[in-house]
Amino acid sequence: MNTRQKKKLALFNKFSKNLAFVRNYPGVSIQSKDDNYSSADSEYLCPLSLKLFNQEGLNDIYTDHLTLEHSPPNSLKGHVVALTAKDSNSKGGHLLDHKLRTFVEVREFTMGVTPMKTKFFFDDTIGIPVEISTKSNPTFHFRPPSMHPGAKKLVEYFSVEGNSINFKVNIPNPKADISLLRVAYLIAFGTLGYSFLLGKSIPQLRDQINSPEKKIVNDIPLFYEGFPDELLGVNIITKPFEIRSLLVVFDLELNEKHRFGVVLPGPDSYGLKAYQEFNKYRKNYINFNARNLSKEVDITNPDHAMKFFSIWQEVFEGKQ
Taking the model in full, what pTM does it have? Predict the structure, then answer.
């Protein structure tokens, strides 16, 4: 068994135990997509597709099998947090991961950190590889292989006195809200286990992640930078009461580290109403208190099966 297979098996065992703990909790029902699962001791429910797998699902000889899920993506220095079904990961995951990387690339370009690779089109026909830098004044670095005819023609054009050229550069503007939501959702699942999936608004989040082309969840509250290390991971926003929710803080790293915070709805019926309240603060500074759960919840402990819910109730009990 190689290192990757060992890691997959360890995650399968960890989460299958947690699934059994949550299932055994009084009054709790965790259901698979087809609502027809067996009562085997070792089963893994994909947090995105809700497809149920036994240990055989770790075998990649099957078209749809369990794969290691990096969140954030591996290309942005993320780490493995869970397993997901290959089919659901392939359909939307790769697209959202690509958008997120492009988002970070553009962010670093506009900050003057790294150049952006693109193509310069001369005479509307000849494409020449180019890097654009904004570290000081905008600078174009033409790096064609072996001075191909297009680059040679461009040099000859500029060597004639009086010649000028007009150009337009289109910088991509990728929307990364769903990509960031996906990262936060998977980190929350990796930290809180299957109790996280019991939240009243979680089905809407999952539908949004699985169908990024649709508008299902509006105005996801996102924060850029400004969070201390103590808030890395999953937090409960405890005050103000009207924005009670979860806050997932994580880093994305390409050439520099970028810290983001994504708000997820809490487990009770208030859920997505918190998003509406956040919108009222959009143009103002938000001062809130948060409690980090990452070291409080141990999903391998049967006594912690529903600890997330009990902490939530403890924090907000008696408040209206």
Answer: 0.86
